[in-house]
Amino acid sequence: MNNIFTDSKTFYGFQNKEVSDESLHEIYELIKNNATSFNCQPLRIKFLKSESAKNKLKPFLMESNLEKTMKAPVCAIIAMDLDFYKDLPKNFPAMDAKSFFEGKEKFTYDTAFRNSSIQGGYFIKACHILGLSTGPMSGFNNEGVDQEFFKGTNIKSNFLCNLGYGDEQHTYPKAPRYDFKDIVEIL
Ligand SMILES: Cc1cc2nc3c(=O)[nH]c(=O)nc-3n(C[C@H](O)[C@H](O)[C@H](O)COP(=O)(O)O)c2cc1C
């Protein structure tokens, strides 16, 4: 891949090649220094690599996402910790940002969802930098996954992302995108 923004594609199948634990560490090392509001860190990741871990996910996958996920070398649960603001004194020492969130459920949820989604975008691009292909998915039962993997915590799933070394037979030609003139304004 020459350019991770213009040349990347979504993959629905992967080569039969392991993704090393070292690569999974490298993904996070690339993600962690990128921008979020108040430098908050809501992102939580569970990498499901073993068959037993993926079997726990199986009942909660939409039918059309089942086979490709079970066959993928790794499926990542991209999640968000709604208690993220409790660490703000450490993550954003410049001011008392924790107090902005205390007792503000909607603001806390919106901030966690916005920033974990941005961090999820960093995740996808970090994979591409490392030569890994991705298959993000929102077609699953979030409540079921939260119950199975995050019970007793304030962590909620955002989206899933299969990863591995892409198999060109399991991808599609790019669908159309808008041109600049269609959706952008310079004021
Ligand atoms: C947040 C998100 C959720 C998605 N959910 C699914 C899904 O549940 N099942 C699926 O097959 N593809 C899913 N996709 C894949 C998209 O359809 C795909 O990325 C898009 O069509 C662009 O394809 P391209 O990257 O090959 O250009 C999802 C992608 C994203 C970013």
Outline the secondary-structure elements.
Layout lengths: L20 H11 L11 E6 L2 H7 L5 H9 L2 E8 L6 H4 L6 H4 L3 H25 L3 E5 L4 H8 L5 E10 L15 H4 L4
Bound molecules: flavin mononucleotide (FMN).
Essential attributes:
alpha+beta; 8 helices; 187 residues; four-stranded antiparallel beta sheet; 4 strands; binds flavin mononucleotide; NADH Oxidase
Task: Describe, in short, the structure shown.
The protein is an alpha+beta fold.
Average pLDDT level: 98
* Helix-strand topology string: HEHHEHHHEHEH
Percent of residues in β-strands: 15-25%
CATH superfamily: NADH Oxidase
The largest β sheet comes out as: 4 strands, antiparallel
Residue runs with pLDDT of under 50 for 5 or more positions: none
Output the structural class: alpha+beta
What's the shape? Answer: globular
Subunit organisation of the chains: single chain
Strand order of the largest sheet: 1-2-4-3
Instruction: List cofactors, ions and other ligands.
Output: flavin mononucleotide
